[in-house]
Structure formats: C-alpha cells, structure tokens
Model the fold of this input.
Amino acid sequence: MLCAMNATETTVRSDDFDRARQDFPIAQRRAYLNNASIGPLSNRVVAAVDAFMADVRDNGRNNYPHWCRHADTAIKDRIGRLIGADRSEIAFVKNTTEGLAIVANGVDWRPGDNVIVPDIEYPSNVYCCMNLKRWGVELRWVKSRQGRILVEDLREAMDSRTRLVSISSVQFSNGFRHDIAATGELCRDRGVLLSLDAIQWVGALHIDMASLPVDFMAFGGHKWMLAPIGTGVFYCNKNALDKIRPSVVGYHSVDKSEDHMDYDLDFRPNAGRFEEALVNFPGIHGLDAAVQTFLELGMPRVTRHILGLTGLAADTLKRKGYEILSPWRDSERSGILSFRHPSTPADEIAQRMRDAGVDLAVRAGALRISPSFYNNSSDITRLVEALP
Ligand SMILES: Cc1ncc(COP(=O)(O)O)c(C=O)c1O
Done:
C-alpha cells in the first residue's frame, strides 16, 4: 500500500536520482514534465531494445524458447516485485486499454447486469464498458464531486445486478488518487469485480497488489514506466483467474505451444492465458530495463521524490497566484498536478512553455505537470520562472 508521506519530509535531490537523471538525454535539454502523457526513454531502455533486435537479426528464431522462458520467469518476477504480485498473476499486453477490455469482455454478462464507471475517466475505461450495451449491460455513471470519486457514491450506485466497477486508481486529468483499499473492500463485500486502470499510478506511486482487494489491474509502459510504447501489463489476481474468460484466444492461451495440431482449448493455469500469441519481446526487454531502474531506486523512494516535486511546484505556484485544481490532501494527491492561471488560457501558456524548453500538458482546460524520478527541483524552478 502507499506509504504515508508528506511533501515537506521528502528529500528532493539525492545522488542516486542525480545519477539516474544522467541516463535521460532529454533531461539535459528540457524540463520535461509530461510523463503522464508519454515518458521519454533512458539510454538503458533503448540499449535493451537494441540488444533484443540484434539477437533476432543475428539468430532468427533460434533463441525463441529462451525469450519465452525469460519473459515468463525473470521479467515477470521483476514486474511482480515492482507491483507486489506473483509472476503467475501477470500477462503482457500492448496497452492499458487492452487490459481493461480483457476484463470488460471477459465477464459472463447476463442482460440487465450493470457496470459502474466514474464520469471523469479516460475514454479507454468508458468505451470498453459502453461496448457492453450489445449484451444488455447497463453502464452506470458515478458523478465526481470537485474532481473526486467518493467510495460512498460507488456504494450508492450498486445494486444486486452490479458485476463490475471499472475505475482509474489515479485520474488522468487532475491526478486524484482514489481510495482503492476501501473500494476493494466494498466490492468484495458485494461480490462485485474490481478492475483498475493504473497507468497513472504505477511508476509514480508505490503499489502492493498483494495487500489490496483488487481483482484486475492494467497499466501501459509508455508513461510513468518510461518504457517503450506498445508495452503493458495486465494483472489478474490468482483468485479471480476463473472469473473472466479470455475473449481473444490463440496458440499461447494454452500450454502446448509447440504441439500445434493437438487442438484442445485448455487455458494456461495462470494470467499467461490472456497472451494469445507472440508478445512484444523487443518492447518487453525495454520494459524490463525500466523496471530494473525502478527496483534499484526503490518505489517508496521514487514516490517520495515525485510527491516532493509536485509538492514543491504546488507551493511555488500558489505563491505566484496560480490556482491548484488537483485534490490536494495527502491521501489523494499523486504525481499529477493540475493548475490554472487566473486569466491566461492554458493552451496559450503551454505553447509559450514549449518555446522555453518546458514540456507540460493541457487537460480539461488546465495545465498539468507530471514529474518523474529523473526530474529534479531545477526543472520545477525552470517551469515556475517561465510561467507568466
Ligand atoms: C487513465 C488513462 N488510461 C488509459 C490511457 C491510455 O493508455 P494506453 O494507451 O496504455 O491504453 C491513458 C492515456 O492518457 C490514461 O491517462
């Protein structure tokens, strides 16, 4: 679970983080504060992808059994250590959206069932649920309150036909961090499945799936994980494996991948059943390199570093007259900080910032920054000095 922390207690700079920063060429040129959109790659990640590509160039298929074994053991073990899961609970997917759809399409729906979704979700989590209408499934919206999703509102929306709650652990627009533990307990009590879109959480904040009552979780590699585009992880709690059925199946959904014509749809006894065919090995090797950096730095330290930077930015921006729009209690803030100038439109400011070498995003009409572990207080100073 997320450690209790406070921006003022954190050490924003340390030698390890300074060294990690050296591996990100973009950090030498720009104050890149847009990791919640697409994170830049480190030299280490690019080298890992290149090494895999060189292997295929030089050896063709010859190392294929090793790629499969290595991905299913060493790489999944490291991802498991990062998120507090067992390797058997992890499947490689191409993005978060695919993971959310595996759940939405995998439930054994009956007409009249319903799924609950907050009204400020990223579209990935909305469309996969809207798409269930053809099976007679009702989408129930939960209204946000000042950018927050309250557990009691989720409870209020539930009834005996509720089968699934699909929700972001951190909201993309304002960074609101949801109370996953309380929502998980509510869902368990009601026999409702819980699916998390965790792309704005993993890589920014520490998470321990083993201590959370969550059935499914997905995150793409291309944001906070600073890993290649086209990589992602789907987590399926071992107790939830048989609660959904793979909707896309292929030769890797079953265990006898070399025994091609012995047709028997006997799913692998782990989350690997959701990998229907060859996975994105080049990207996964890059993802693995990124994961190793997170493990070396330690996720609780990374979390403190990131919350230290957003805390520093919020304090300075307030003094400069900006309005902070992110929910900002210690329990609900994240790696995302959303803020607004009293009069100048966000798009106009973002353009000016780009020209000044500072990258941020505009979401829901507000400016959004999302610093990672390779950022430091000099990036925040550059941001604040360049802002009108
Ligand atoms: C909360 C959230 N979910 C999903 C996505 C899309 O991620 P992916 O491309 O991995 O499906 C985004 C991207 O901005 C996001 O912010």
